[in-house]
Design goal:
Monomer. Catalyzes the conversion of epoxyqueuosine (oQ) to queuosine (Q), which is a hypermodified base found in the wobble positions of tRNA(Asp), tRNA(Asn), tRNA(His) and tRNA(Tyr). The chain is α+β, with helices and mostly antiparallel strands. 33% of the residues lie in helices and 13% in strands. The protein is built from twelve helices and ten strands. The strands form four sheets. The chain has a four-stranded antiparallel β-sheet with strand order 1-2-7-4, with helices on both faces. A two-stranded parallel ribbon has the order 3-10. Strands 5-6 form a two-stranded antiparallel ribbon. Helix 1 runs antiparallel to helix 4.
C-alpha cells in the first residue's frame, strides 16, 4: 500500500473513531463550477444583510489561498438528528441543530484531535480546521468529496442518512487519495420547494437567503418585514421545513453525541413559557447554545412576531 493510501486510511478510520458520520477527501483546487454560481447569487442580492458572504470571494473558491501549499480538503459530517423533539405542538419551534451545545465548539474540539492524530501518526502536516465560520463553501467541498449531492433545497443530501448533519473541513498540505462525487438523487421531487413557507427556494437548487426563515430569525438584526407575518410556520430560531419534508430524511438516525442532547427545558417549555421567557431563563436554557447568537432581544422579537 502506498503512503498516500495508508495516510488516507488512517485519517478516515480516526475520523470514524472520533464519532464523525463520514469522511471524504478532495483535491485542494479552485472550485470552477461554483464561481459563476456564487457570483450570480451575490449579484442578485440573495445574501440579504449577510454582507460577510461578499467578503473573500477568491478565498471561498480557492483553498490554497486559505492554507498555503494545501493539497487536500478533508470533509467531515457529524450527525445531529435528535431522538426527540419539542413536546408542545403549539410552542414556537427551534431548529434541531440548536437543541444541544453550540456545534462550533463541539466540532472544533474533534477537529483538533484529528489534527493532533495526523501530526503524531503521519508527521509534520500544516493545515487549518473550519467549522462554518470562515470563507469555505462547506457543501461544495463535501459534494466534491463524495459525501452526498447538493439537493434542490441547497442542502447536502446523502442517501443513507438524509441531511441532518454538520459539515466541517480540515484543509491540509498533505497529498491524499481523492474521492469522487456521487450522482444527484433528487429526481422529479419538489417536496422542499412546495413546502417552503416563504417560497425561499426560488428555483431548484437556488435558495434566496434573504427570504429564508433562518435568515429572518438569526441573521436579520432589524425588524422582520410585516409581509412575512403568519408565514413562519411557528419557527422562532432557524427552520427545518425543507429538511423535514425531504424523503431522504426518512433514513435519519438519532445521533450519539452527548453534547448535542437537548436541555430538558427546551423540549418541555410550553407556548406560554416561551411567550413569557425572561433574560434569566434565556441565559440558563441557552448557556452554551448556538441560540445565544440571537441574544435574548432577538429571540423575544421572533416570538412576538409569531403571535
Amino acid at each position: 500500500m502506498s503512503n498516500t493510501a495508508l495516510h488516507t486510511q488512517l485519517i478516515k478510520s480516526e475520523a470514524k473513531r472520533l464519532g464523525f458520520l463520514s469522511c471524504g477527501i478532495s483535491k485542494a483546487e479552485f472550485l470552477e463550477q461554483e464561481a459563476p454560481r456564487l457570483e450570480k447569487w451575490l449579484n442578485q442580492n440573495m445574501q440579504g444583510q449577510m454582507s460577510y458572504m461578499e467578503n473573500h470571494f477568491d478565498k471561498r473558491l480557492d483553498p490554497t489561498k486559505l492554507v498555503e501549499g494545501s493539497k487536500s480538503v478533508i470533509s467531515l459530517l457529524l450527525n445531529y438528528f435528535p431522538s426527540e423533539t419539542q413536546k408542545d405542538p403549539d410552542a414556537p419551534k427551534i431548529s434541531k441543530y440548536a437543541y444541544g451545545q453550540d456545534y462550533h465548539h463541539v466540532i472544533k474540539h474533534k477537529l483538533k484531535q484529528l489534527q493532533e492524530f495526523i501530526s503524531e501518526n503521519i508527521g509534520e502536516v500544516h493545515g487549518r480546521a473550519f467549522v462554518d465560520s470562515a470563507p469555505v463553501l462547506d457543501k461544495a467541498w463535501a459534494a466534491k468529496s463524495g459525501l452526498g449531492w447538493i439537493g434542490k433545497n441547497s442542502n447536502l443530501l446523502t442517501q443513507k442518512v438524509g441531511s441532518y448533519y454538520f459539515i466541517a473541513e480540515l484543509i491540509v498540505d498533505l497529498e491524499l487519495e481523492y474521492d469522487t462525487p456521487v450522482t444527484d438523487h433528487c429526481g422529479t421531487c419538489t417536496a422542499c420547494i412546495d413546502a417552503c413557507p416563504t417560497q425561499a427556494i426560488v428555483d431548484p437548487y437556488v435558495v434566496d437567503g434573504s427570504k429564508c426563515i433562518s435568515y429572518f430569525t438569526i441573521e436579520l438584526k432589524e425588524e422582520i418585514p410585516s409581509d412575512y407575518r403568519g408565514k413562519f410556520d411557528n419557527w422562532m430560531f432557524g427552520c427545518d421545513v425543507c429538511q423535514d419534508v425531504c424523503p431522504w430524511n426518512r433514513f435519519s438516525k438519532p445521533h450519539n453525541e452527548p453534547l448535542f442532547n437537548p436541555k430538558p427545558d427546551i423540549l418541555e417549555m410550553t407556548k406560554k413559557d416561551w411567550e413569557e421567557i425572561t433574560q434569566e431563563v434565556f441565559s440558563k436554557v441557552f448557556q452554551k447554545s448556538a441560540v445565544k447568537r440571537t441574544k435574548f432581544s432577538g429571540l423575544s422579537r421572533n416570538i412576538q412576531f409569531l403571535k
